[in-house]
Structure formats: structure tokens, C-alpha cells
Amino acid sequence: MCRNFTEVTGDMICPNMVRGIDHLRDPRLNKGLAFTLEERQTLGIQGLLAAEYKTQEEQLNICQISLDRYKDSLNKFIYLMELQDMNEKLFFSLLSKNVEKYLPIVYTPTVGLACQRFGLIYRKPRGLFVTIYDKGHILNILNNWPEHNVRAIVFTDGERILGLGDLGAYGMGIPVGKLALYTVLAGIKPHQCLPITLDVGTDNKDLLEDPLYIGLRQKRVRGKEYDDFIDEFMKAAIERFGPNTLLQFEDFALVNATRLLEKYRDEYCTFNDDIQGTASVAVAGLFAATRITKRKMNENIYMFLGAGSAATGIANLIVAAMVEEGVNMDDARKLIYMFDVDGLLTNSRQNGVPDHAKHFGKDIEPEKNFEKCVATIKPTCLIGCSTVGGAFNENILKQMARNAERPVIFALSNPTSKAECTAQAAYDHTEGRCVFASGSPFPPVKYKDKEYHTGQGNNSYIFPGIALGVIVSRSRRIPESMFLTAARTLANFVSEGDLALGRIYPPLSDVKNVSLNIAVEVAKQAYSKELATAFPKPCDFKSYIQNHTYNLQYDSYIPKFFKYPKSPNIKVKPVQDAYKGLVLFF
Ligand SMILES: NC(=O)c1ccc[n+]([C@@H]2O[C@H](COP(=O)([O-])OP(=O)(O)OC[C@H]3O[C@@H](n4cnc5c(N)ncnc54)[C@H](O)[C@@H]3O)[C@@H](O)[C@H]2O)c1
Ligand SMILES: O=C(O)C[C@H](O)C(=O)O
Ligand SMILES: [Mg+2]
User: Fold this and answer.
1) Which residue puts its alpha carbon closest to atom 31 of ligand 1?
2) 105 to each of 111, 172, 303, how far by Cα in Å?
């Protein structure tokens, strides 16, 4: 039996005709043993499956049992990737069912390990690899992508994968993981998402010598040739998929991240997740923390370890938040200190202040000892975006406990091994008085017989909702104000119960609702700023957006008008319990 794809799925457009067997081979159509007998017979696939019928719920239980059998997190990751390649709805419904349990596998920290071992676990390709040698015909490569209705691209050049450094083409795990979260946390349809790795080589010596490496085996191309390549990619992306295609920069190194964002933000529908998404989630956490510390945003002194993409993104949004609350911009900047690999950002230090962080250079004596800075400057908020695991040592944490009654400590570097301190260390060395968040999840902390559930200050609370709002409104651009709005929306979701548990973010199980609300605010802003291009403007934003999201439930492949002809000679008899739902002919 042949049918059109559009007819089958309702929203996929594909000129190819779909045969019965394609329902087993195509992960978007496959339901495994959940094909009813009627479907099996209608599609001509009866006998290609075992006789048993299983509901989606039963299949989910089997997946959970299978996953629980694996002790090694990388094996869990491989299982989930294979599930995604086999049965997309089952994959996404499994992740949605228990976000707290499965996010740490498809996302940080396990995705970091998966990227490091990408050559070993690479089986079925997912996403596009565009290499520097495709320069001049990138559009042709994008034309090879079989989906036409792509609305969002997450792309990396693999140079700063989490805090793990240059992983070259192995970085593909990141855009794939981010886009899985687009669907799980915001309900964006999977076929509208495209992960891309821009392969310009790698400067990672180990990878260049790794026999398993799958990318270009050469040093990174830099300078004009790199810039021209990125330029051609950006142009080709919108030529192929339309002018309002969302282009999310992910895990670019500091040398490129800020300058590329500045170059493209007013010309394309683009944002840098590490700069802007991170800023938004961190500021949301700081907003929520004010309810515990009773200090307003401008009653804090902020100290960053790391002054790269994430740190300066956060610092700039903290300033914007204070300005919105009536604080003078210069006064706001004075409250923020930064410390990078060369020491405190002071105007008189040897290498000067890097351009991207120039607003935060201070006219004080240079200092290379971070611990000393924490003791003399006495920050009340300490924010780690340095990629240096364990950098917030016992002395530093104890000093923070002296600096404030309720010190705020964010260890945002990923994956877990790169976190500036663990949740347990933060509580132990601040007598349980800290307000803590980390980029990767930590298990609950016990301090003096009380259990605390610390929050995950990760941009995953932000980028899916921003993307959903941008996609549904077809916004032409993504102004900075959307990230501040997203931060306020997220902070409003933090309940008194969360705060009592020590959490300044809502539980991960609420993220879907958070994303929906962020999307509503983002879309409203797109219309009010005349950036939206989807018309007519919706009356009820929430239900409009909900109507555009992915349905996790299996589709029925029996067209409504189709009545399966029952032969009078066939006796239909329901079989015993083991064959629940399956009707066999005897
Ligand atoms: N939680 C989140 O949502 C989130 C979001 C983005 C980035 N991050 C994490 O933050 C980290 C940094 O990301 P980025 O994009 O800012 O990277 P980046 O390369 O742009 O910046 C790293 C910064 O750390 C500084 N640094 C390096 N070694 C240092 C040392 N020994 N002492 C002091 N400073 C040092 C560098 O000078 C630089 O300023 C990564 O681990 C990343 O995973 C987390
Ligand atoms: O990927 C993450 O978990 C967050 C962030 O984008 C990062 O680069 O660390
Ligand atoms: Mg990132």
C-alpha cells in the first residue's frame, strides 16, 4: 500500500510515496509492536512483526527496564541514540516521561563523554557535516538534507565543546543533543530541526592521531578563509530554508563566539546559546536568589571565575537587569569583577582587558591570586564559567561564607568534572548557608540532617522556549530583550517550596511548561517589536503555540474514512491477555 507522507503524519511534506515496509524502517513512522492488527493488515506488514501487540505505555516500560540494565552511562547513551534511530516517538516520549532521569544521558554530563568517544559510538549518521572543502558549494550540501521544512539549525565548529576543549567533528553530539531538547522540552517538531557540524579541522593533537577520528585530519582553518566559510554557510542556510530560519551558535571558542554574534545578530534570526542562553538562565537564578538572600540585584558584588563567552554574557545581562530596575549602567558595571586565565581584569594588567570584556576592566592593582581576590573584594555572588574543575576550593568557599550571610555560588562549567565545586562541597564549606546552582546536575545534598535539592543553572531552561517562540512567530531577529524576558519568566516559576529545598530553579519536570510560557512571552515580544512575520497574529498565544507542538502519541495509520473490510467467513476473536488489544483471525 502506498500513501503520501503528508497524509500519514499530518505535517511532514515529502513527495515520496510511502510503502508499508517504510513504516517499520522510518523512525518517524515506526511504532514497533504498537501497530494494531488492522494497521498491520492495511499496511501489508502483518507477519513482519511478532504477534504480540503492545501499547506505547508498555513499550515505554520495556525501554526503562532495558536502560536500567546498563550500568555504564555511555551504554545508556548508545541505547537511546539507537532508539531515536528506530522509533522517534518512543524516544521522545521516553525522555519526556522522566526528564530528570534521562536528560543527564542525552545532555550534560554524558553527552560530553559521548563526544569524546564519538568515533567509537558513531553508527548511523545524524545531522549534516559541512567541511571547509565544501566552500563554494555549501548550498549544494544543504540541499542534500532530505527535509524541507527546517525551522531551526543548531551548529557548532566543535572548538569549545562544553569545558572539554576542541573536539572537532566529535562535537556533533552537542547540536544533536540540543535539538533533542528542542523537542523534549519545548515540543518543537523533530523534522523542523537540523544539527550541523562545521568541520574546519581540529587543533586537538590527540584527535589528529586518533585512528577512530571521523573529521578532517588537519589543523583548524582560521582567519579570512574561516570567516568567509561561516559567511557562506549563513547565507546558504537561509537560502535553503528561508529567511527566518533560526540559527543557533553552539560551543564556538572565545576567539569567534562574540565577534560572530556581533556580526550576524542584526542580519539573521540568530543567537549564541553559550552567551545569551546562559546569561538568561543565570540571571533567572540570581532573580530567584534575591528572595532567599533578601539582597536586591544591585546590593551584591559579583565575582566571575572565567571571563569568556558565558561569563561576559551573564555579566552584561546582569547589568541590563539592573538598568531595567533603575540603576545607572556604569554603577551596575562597577559591581562586577572578572578573573580569567591571566588574572583579575584590571586596566593596568600586562595583557590588558580582552575586547569582549572591556566594560569590566577595573582601575585597581592587577592580581593573579583568585583566592586573594575573593578575600579582598568580598563578592557576595561567585560565578564559575572557567572550565576549571574544583577551582572553588575549601578556602574560597569558606571565605564566601564570611562575605555574606547567604552567599550565592554558581559552578556553571560543564560537564560535572569541570564544575568549579560540587554541591556537597558548597554546602559543607559554607555551613549550609549558600545558594547553589551548577551547570550539570548533582544528586541531593545532605547537610546536618537536612536534604537540599540544588538547581541546574543550565541554558536548557531557556533555549528551547526562546526557539519555540521565535519559530511560531517567525521572528526575523532575536533581540537581547527576549533573554531578559525569558529570565523573568523562568524566575517566576520558582515556588516557595523550591526555595525551601535550596533550589532556585523549578524542577526539570516543569521545564516543558516553563518553555511554553517563555515561548508565549517571546512571541508576544516578536509581535510588539514588529519582528514577527507569521500572520494573522494569534489571539490566544498559549493555545496557538500548543497547537504547533509535537504530538508524542503514536499516530493512527488507518485513515478515518477507511473501513477495513471484514470477510463474513473470518471469525474475529479477541485473544488471551498476553495479546492485549490484538485481534487475531482464526
Ligand atoms: N551552565 C551552562 O548553561 C553553561 C553555558 C555555557 C557555558 N558553560 C560552561 O562554562 C564554561 C566556559 O564556557 P565559555 O563559553 O565561557 O568558555 P570560554 O572559552 O569562552 O571562556 C573560558 C574562560 O575561562 C578562563 N579560564 C580558563 N582557565 C582558567 C583558569 N585556570 N583560571 C581562571 N580562568 C580561566 C578563560 O580565560 C576564559 O575567560 C564551559 O565549561 C562551559 O561548559 C555552561
Ligand atoms: O551544553 C550544556 O550543557 C550547556 C552549555 O551550552 C555548555 O556549553 O556547557
Ligand atoms: Mg554550549
Assistant:
1) 341
2) 6, 15, 31
The one-character DSSP state at 362 is: B
What is the mean pLDDT of the segment spanning 3-29?
66
Q: Which residues line ligand 1 at a C-beta cut-off of 6 Å?
A: 160, 162-163, 254, 274, 278, 281, 305-311, 339-341, 385-388, 412-414, 418, 439, 457-459
Query: 458 labelled as ligand-binding?
Result: yes
Q: How far is the CA of 579 from the centre of ligand 3 (A)?
A: 46
Average pLDDT (19-30) is: 94
Q: What is the residue-averaged pLDDT of the chain?
A: 93
User: Other CB atoms closer than 10 Å to residue 394's CB: what's the count?
Assistant: 11
Ligand 2 lined by 251 (C-beta under 6 Å)? yes
List CB-based neighbours of ion ligand 3 within 5 Å. 251, 274
pLDDT band at 561 (very low <50, low <70, confident <90, very high): low
Please give the average per-residue pLDDT across 504-512, as a whole number.
96
Q: Which residue puts its alpha carbon closest to atom 3 of ligand 2?
A: 108
Cα dihedral across residues 270, 273, 277, 282: positive or negative: negative
Ligand 1: centre distance to CA 330 (Å): 25
Cα torsion at 113, 116, 119, 120 (round to 10°)? -40
Say whether 551 counts as a known binding-site residue. Answer: no
3-state secondary structure of 306: coil
| Residue listed under C-alpha cell 569558606 | 398
How far CA 350 is from CA of 254, 339, 345, in Å, comes to 20, 14, 10
Check whether 26 is labelled as a binding-site residue: no
Q: Tens of pLDDT along 243-264?
A: 999 999 999 999 999 999 999 9
The rounded distance, in Å, linking the Cα atoms of 256 and 334 is 26
Distance from C-alpha of 280 to C-alpha of 360, rounded to nearest angstrom: 19
pLDDT at 558: 86
Kindly give, in sequence order, each residue whose CB lies less than 8 Å from that of residue 157, ignoring residues fewer than 6 positions away. Answer: 171, 197, 198, 199, 200, 252, 253, 256
> Which positions are catalytic?
107, 178
The yes-or-no verdict on residue 331 having pLDDT over 60 is: yes
Does residue 414 have its Cβ closer than 6 Å to ligand 2? yes
Ligand at shortest distance from the CA of 115: 2
ipTM confidence score:
0.99
Quick one: which ligand is closest to 275's CA? 1
Domains and CATH numbers, the chain: 3-97 (1.20.1370.30), 106-268 (3.40.50.10380), 276-458 (3.40.50.720)
- Residue-wise pLDDT for 87-132, tens only, equals 999 999 999 999 999 999 999 999 999 999 999 999 888 999 999 9
pTM: 0.94
Known binding residue 140? Answer is: no
Q: Whose CA is nearest to atom 18 of ligand 1?
A: 308
Beta-carbon contacts of 348 under 8 Å, excluding residues fewer than 6 positions away, are 363, 365, 366
